[in-house]
Amino acid sequence: MLELISSYSTVAIVVAALAHLLFFFVLALWARGDRKKIVQTLQRFTDSLPNRSRMDYDAHPSDQIEACLADIHDVLVEPSGSPHRVALSQRMRILDERRDYLHSLRFETAWNVARTMIEAYPLAGVLGTILAIGAALASDDQASVGVIVTRFGDAIWSTFAGLAAAITLMLINSFFEPGFAKLSENRLHVRETASKAKRELGPADRVDPNAMSTTPATEATT
């Protein structure tokens, strides 16, 4: 039994590393979808602003998010009752329609697991080495030299597979980590901006501009 486990330890490490690599790409697609939802929501929210930031079609979604948030902050510093503040106040429901993209706990938990488990591969390699050495020592006295050499070969390959998997996944994580961290930062900024908008857009900003324009006309006719 020990020999069987030892012989498959290298294969198990390689399969786990490939699954781990696939999981990183799933996280990348997950993050891309959340960024797209945030951009679409903020663009709908700021669609009525005449001085809305215009960015190139190939601009990164994180940059588009920050540009939309900057446009919202520019409107919030305007005097109460300004047309732009009224327009944002009327569109406040857009921020509340779909907020699932702001729920970051599941994504951050999955990313933390993927990042932390990279450290398990060298340990798995060492475990495979111990199993191989144990299988070699547990063989009976009449075991051939070839069998013992095979077990020690399994030990070397197990250690190599664990270290190679860890190095490769650390490299992959270094490419994805800035984008994942930026997404968490974008979510935080969106939450803060949405809270600030709801807090600062008061009753004076919820006046219907059509009602305001028809009032003088009504008074003139009377």
Topology readout:
Elements: H1 2-45, H2 61-76, H3 83-90, H4 92-97, H5 105-116, H6 120-138, H7 145-200, H8 209-221
Helix pairs in contact: 1-2, 1-5, 1-6, 1-7, 2-7, 6-7
Provide a short characterization of the protein structure.
By secondary structure, the chain is mostly helical.
What is the N-to-C succession of helices and strands? Answer: HHHHHHHH
The average pLDDT is 80
Count of separate DSSP helical elements: 8
| Unreliable segments of 5+ consecutive residues | 211-222
Description of the structure:
The chain is an all-alpha fold. It has helices at residues 2-45, 61-76, 83-90, 92-97, 105-116, 120-138, 145-200, 209-221. It has one domain (2-210).
State the main characteristics.
single chain, 222 residues, mainly alpha, 8 helices, 78% helix, 0% strand, rod-shaped
